[in-house]
Amino acid sequence: MPRASLLLQEAMTYILNIGDSIRDPLLVLDTKLRVVSANRAFYKTFRSTANETENQQLSDLGNGQWNIPELIALLTKILPNKKPLDDFEISHNFPKIGRRDMLVNARKLFGAGNRNALIILVIEDITERKQAQQAVAVSETRYRRLFEAARDGILLLDSEHGKITEANPFMTELLGYSHEELIGKELWEIGLLKDEEASRDAFRQLKEQGYIRYEDLPLASEGDKKREVEFVSNIYQEGNTQVIQCNIRDVTERKLLEAKVAVEHKRDKKIATVLQRTMLFQPNEDAFSGLSVQTVYSTASNEALVGGDFWDTFAFDHGHVALVCGDVMGHGLSSAVFTTELKHTLRAYIREHVQPSRILQQMNDYLSESNRLFLKGINTEGGDMPVCLSLAIIDRQTGMGTVSVAAMEGPLLIRTNGVTEVLKASGMPLGINMEPKSRYHQVDFQLAVGDTLVMATDGVTEARHGKEFLGDDGLAKLAVKHRHGTLKDMGEAILTGAVDFAHGDLRDDACLVLVRKK
Q1: pTM score, two decimals?
Q2: CA–CA dist 167, 151 (Å, integer)
């Protein structure tokens, strides 16, 4: 065997031994770009065999995916010019493995002359790397868009010196500085912190805790325009580097709105207080001959301008007394205005009809029609606030009475001997337009001397401890326990008992109307 051929064979054996240990696909080509051999990684990657590969032209492999004129031209220059091929990238849809991105490198490997030379061609699959690079690029683009479009100011600081390294466009809009003027500045230099010492203290705190927050921070921008901002800063790791990010939110408009709302709230509270004095007029206990009357009231929250519960007591036709205990959905000025209107309308109907069920039917028709016209935009007054109410009319001389209710607890009749009776008279809330029309029932009762009628809203009976409610039974026990006291003492003791049952936390307004035959 000629020496050159022997050397070539030895070289091939050496190459293949090394090639099989390489994870990337490898081809050995002769001077005519015919495949002399391939390593195991090539066959595994491209799912081919030696019979399909060896002695084949590179351009004929597979379905011709390597028949790339530019690649072929570069490979043919390797031997005569000794010019290596570096990082030639191809993207192809391979029949057995799908679309892949490949990086090709080639070198002249053997032979003093071109006749016996070989070319070693290494193929690196960079598909996943390119996908990762594209994902990073997309992420960076998305972050940059968010950064630039954010309506909060964003600053990035150097974690070593606390100097600004990046600022988004809104930051320049907020402060009036250009982007170039912001870069390299410390926070105190752009008016975010009071002075250099304050900036140093904040920077030290941030380094120790990793997070700082300031609310209602005054900020003077260019031109001495006063703003108020919320300032939040945190420090995080970005690769091997720590980065400080500061988010600055302009809350000036919100603060102005809060101040305006506070002024309006104060005004509404003053108006509501006047309305409440009129609406919740407390009668003297002996205002009606033959009867003692007392009312007790408590709102669920001190913040409420006026609660949704209400009462009314008044005499009419020289012999009867009307007692009302009600609950309007909602709180505040609008509810107070609506309740005032409701009371005067109710008084008018009571003077027309003595029967409570007829009065409630008339009230329901009136409120339903008002709500309908309001929702249609025909009337400017009205709404959609259902009203729960109990109405009792009592002859103050004989103690004979009649009660009707609209979605309220039935009044309790407490006899002097402690016997109790619930006056059940069902009915829908007022203001709900039902077809056929809602009907209201009434119950007659007799108050003997010393007997007490207790009317209460659900703020009392629904006093809650855990999953347990005070309920009608709990109300009755409290009423019976304190029945021998004055009406005022009895009412206050019932309310205190409900508050104690709820561990001091009534979840709704509470109203009691008590009447006793003298």
Answers
A1: 0.53
A2: 12
